[in-house]
């Protein structure tokens, strides 16, 4: 049997090395942070996908949450300037502008500090958070990691990865990263999950403490509550004025209240949906 020559042997070794590289763990792709202001974490590719057109509203249009708006913007500005800032949990009523406020606060702070970036990470990708942090540290930029509708269900242990990444790991959270999350739950875990831990654990208090300690990693808790009728109409007036929708105030308010009645709720989301419908009736684009 003929022995392969050296050149053929080297080709086989190269093919074997390529095959082993494909079988090994994927290496994160070094992102081009100048490509965009906002990114989405692609956990499958371990890469940051730039968002060229961000879906957000002007911060002046977010009504009925003035106090929490000012607190969040101030925290974001401090962080963007390189000062100490807290992780933030925005929790409470649905449709009251929690995620809209995060995106608007980042845009507001970035006016004076263009190196501030917003990165959205999906809840199901929390386990890959350490890989993402590895890409972000030791860069001249500052990053808000944003997870919308963050919550954990039964038998979900990925919250432990988030706890370690926020404060508890050996390396800790990089100085140029802060974490913002929105949730309908104050403690991010369903009440029956906490009650079940209490009833079945050997030491109930320790089991519950383990579950609710995740929310303690957020230095700021900003609560959002259902809006009043006056606040709802203030949102309607703000949108109508901003988009120059020429409708008499009495007619505008009557239609807006009728819309909220059919929806069974008053919120910023309901107000925005009404404005979209009204603009369509007027033949306008928003």
What topology does this entry show?
Blueprint: H1 6-23, E1 38-42, E2 47-51, H2 66-80, E3 88-92, H3 98-110, E4 116-120, H4 129-136, E5 142-147, H5 159-168, E6 177-183, H6 191-200, H7 204-212, E7 220-224, H8 229-242, H9 249-263, H10 268-281
Parallel strand pairs: 1-4, 3-6, 3-7, 4-5, 5-6
Antiparallel strand pairs: 1-2
Helix pairs in contact: 2-3, 6-7, 8-9, 8-10, 9-10
Name given to the CATH homologous superfamily of the largest domain: P-loop containing nucleotide triphosphate hydrolases
List the helices and strands in order. HEEHEHEHEHEHHEHHH
Spatial shape: elongated
- The helix content is 40-55%
SS-based class: alpha/beta
Report the mean per-residue pLDDT as an integer.
83
Segments where pLDDT lies below 50 for 5+ residues?
A: 197-204
Describe this structure in words.
The protein is α/β, with parallel strands linked by helices and 286 residues long. The protein folds into 2 domains: 33-224, Rossmann fold (3-Layer(aba) Sandwich), CATH 3.40.50.300; 229-281. Helix content is 44%, strand content 13%. It has 10 helices and 7 strands. Strands 2-1-4-5-6-3-7 form a 7-stranded mixed β-sheet. Strand 4, helix 4 and strand 5 (142-147) form a beta-alpha-beta unit. The longest helix is centred in the N-terminal third of the chain and has 18 residues, at 6-23. The radius of gyration is 24 Å and the shape is elongated. The N and C termini lie far apart (76 Å).
């Amino acid at each position: 049997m003929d022995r392969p020559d050296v050149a053929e042997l080297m080709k086989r070794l190269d093919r074997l090395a390529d095959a082993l590289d494909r079988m090994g763990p994927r290496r994160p792709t070094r992102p081009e942070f100048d490509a965009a202001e906002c990114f989405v974490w692609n956990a499958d590719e371990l890469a940051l996908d730039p968002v060229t057109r961000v879906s957000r509203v002007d911060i002046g249009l977010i009504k009925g949450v003035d106090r929490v708006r000012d607190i969040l913007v101030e925290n974001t500005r401090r962080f963007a300037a390189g000062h100490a800032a807290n992780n933030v949990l925005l929790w409470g009523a649905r449709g009251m502008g929690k995620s809209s406020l995060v995106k608007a606060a980042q845009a507001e702070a970035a006016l004076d500090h263009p190196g501030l970036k917003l990165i959205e990470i999906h809840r199901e990708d929390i386990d890959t958070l350490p890989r993402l942090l590895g890409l972000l540290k030791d860069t001249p930029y500052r990053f808000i990691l944003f997870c919308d509708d963050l919550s954990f269900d039964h038998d979900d242990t990925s919250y432990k990865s988030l706890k370690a990444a926020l404060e508890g790991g050996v390396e800790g959270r990089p100085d140029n990263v802060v974490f913002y999350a929105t949730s309908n739950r104050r403690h991010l875990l369903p009440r029956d999950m906490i009650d079940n831990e209490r009833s079945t654990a050997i030491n109930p208090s320790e089991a519950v403490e383990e579950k609710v300690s995740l929310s303690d990693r957020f230095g700021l808790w900003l609560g959002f509550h259902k809006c009043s009728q006056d606040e709802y109409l203030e949102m309607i007036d703000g949108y109508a004025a901003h988009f120059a929708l020429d409708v008499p105030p009495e007619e505008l308010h009557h239609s807006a209240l009728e819309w909220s009645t059919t929806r069974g709720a008053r919120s910023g989301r309901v107000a925005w949906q009404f404005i979209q419908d009204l603009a369509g009736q007027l033949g306008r684009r928003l």
